[in-house]
């Protein structure tokens, strides 16, 4: 056999093997395409087409893959521009090219092509199921492109950044949930690090045909702004699907999604004690039904749970619902109504800590393609028409699971979008700012509860004074940290209690705040013995003060002519008194000297002589010569006693305070009322009462 004949035989044999291999590769690519594993399908088809660049079937299949693979949607446009010229007589090419234009944000070019496909669809005599699906999709695409055209004309500034390592890897990371102060992030992960490894549908190890199930990961933000290495939560992760879907603003209550072969998916809850998470508990039947429930968000006061469900009684497909706490459990769910829900799907609600700003994802409203992130604000008890968060936060693919911090200046989302430094299939991104336009307005009170100078778990009862409504929180058992979000327009009383300690209270007036405000406040709880000791020290201090006060000063009467209505240099005076923290020491004497004669219409000073939960415990016989005291039962269930003398000036009130001290009421103190609202002396300095 000659050398040339030998080479020819080998070549023919190689071609036969290659042909068989090519057919098998093409079938494998189609299998990956049908299984929605677009990256693997693309890798194979790209190689096949490179070897057979004249094969239009290969080019068409590659184009279909690219339409479904966000990383390659630009190539989809290139491919269908070529195929549309070659096969201009095929109506479906208008649909594919129109879809490719839409995915690449060329909405003006997409609209006429999609419209042409819809107008001429009747020319198809016996449309297949696939062609009918194209028509339904085309009708949606036309609407999406019209929305996109409008949104592109009003494009907003928003910076999207990949959060990077160590959070993102080459595997899947998605659905980030954060504590409102951004110190903690919990997210869902799929990859080799999961608890069960490769398992089959029976959750048995299977390295051949098994796949990775979801795990819950947690990371903490360091002082330099970077994140710690994520770690799995062993109390929550199982070989099955375990996904994080929501976190309470204080980071202590986690909501999970779990599904089994027996149900379509339900919502569970777990609570942190600072070191471990409790066994997940399935929420009651008002939340979970035989239908799918799989995303939720809880309000900062813990009263409302917003969630997505496919149960009947909605407006179409997947709707958003809300349940209010009744006692210690969730009450009947109510649909959020037609302003929020559409005939399309709504999912992934996130209620901001302000309690009135709702983010969610929708295929309706003004979506530019699939799920888009929307937001609505509640005013006077009604949700306003939702607004699209715009491009680039929203893309022509699905965009869901958006959360933002309390301040509203940063948001978090997961996406498989291309061109933003993606690490894997699904990655976590940040969006700056978190919301464009009207920013959330609220006050956040944070700090630590101490008992005997050590962090402790304490019950925190917050009362909204205008409605006399309460909600309760608990400080972290290990760290003592707490987080309270308060809506503006109200005064709140915060009462902190713990077993073995005397309760303490603080009033927070945030009625007039106009922007995000953070208040840092630590609470120090004392035992009954410690409180008694401190009170004794105060009593002794007042006894000492009593000896130092001249008898004649206590008898001094203040004449009306000594009242000053104008303080022209108040800002300078305020600066001098900046370190005044209350009490009756040297700074108080300076306050008395500088502002003691000031008076104003509607401003009165009173001498408070007692404050009791049980008013019968107080006897005022030693002060009876001043007349019956003024007794005021307040909303906080504390009864306050005042000398029955309304003073126009602080100096006049001080004279009466000294009279009470000389009669044995050594802990008498002065409070202020302006237009019937009560202030301490310290609070008075921070108001504009002294300004003209």
Q: Main sheet?
A: 5 strands, antiparallel
The CATH homologous superfamily of the largest domain is named TolB, C-terminal domain
The proportion of residues forming helix, as a percent range, comes to 25-40%
Structural class: alpha+beta
CATH class annotation of the largest domain:
Mainly Beta
First-last Cα distance: 115 Å
Please count the beta strands (DSSP E, at least 2 residues each).
37
Q: Summarize this, please?
A:
The protein is of the alpha+beta class and 692 residues long. The chain has 13 helices and 37 strands. Strand 14 (319-326) and strand 15 (329-335) form a beta hairpin.
Describe the SSE topology:
Elements: H1 3-34, H2 38-51, H3 56-68, H4 73-86, H5 92-103, H6 107-119, H7 129-153, E1 159-162, E2 172-178, E3 184-190, E4 198-199, E5 211-212, E6 215-220, E7 231-232, E8 243-247, E9 253-258, E10 266-271, E11 281-282, E12 293-298, E13 304-309, E14 319-326, E15 329-335, E16 346-351, E17 357-362, E18 372-379, E19 382-383, E20 387-388, E21 400-404, E22 411-415, E23 427-432, E24 443-451, E25 454-455, E26 459-464, E27 469-474, E28 481-486, E29 491-497, E30 504-509, E31 517-520, E32 523-525, H8 528-548, H9 551-554, H10 570-576, H11 586-595, E33 603-612, E34 630-633, E35 639-642, H12 650-662, E36 669-674, E37 677-679, H13 681-685
Parallel strand pairs: 24-31, 24-32
Antiparallel strand pairs: 1-23, 2-3, 3-6, 4-5, 6-7, 8-9, 9-10, 10-11, 12-13, 13-14, 14-15, 16-17, 17-18, 18-19, 18-20, 21-22, 22-23, 24-25, 24-28, 26-27, 26-29, 29-30, 33-35, 33-36, 34-35, 36-37
Helix pairs in contact: 1-2, 2-3, 3-4, 4-5, 5-6, 5-7, 6-7
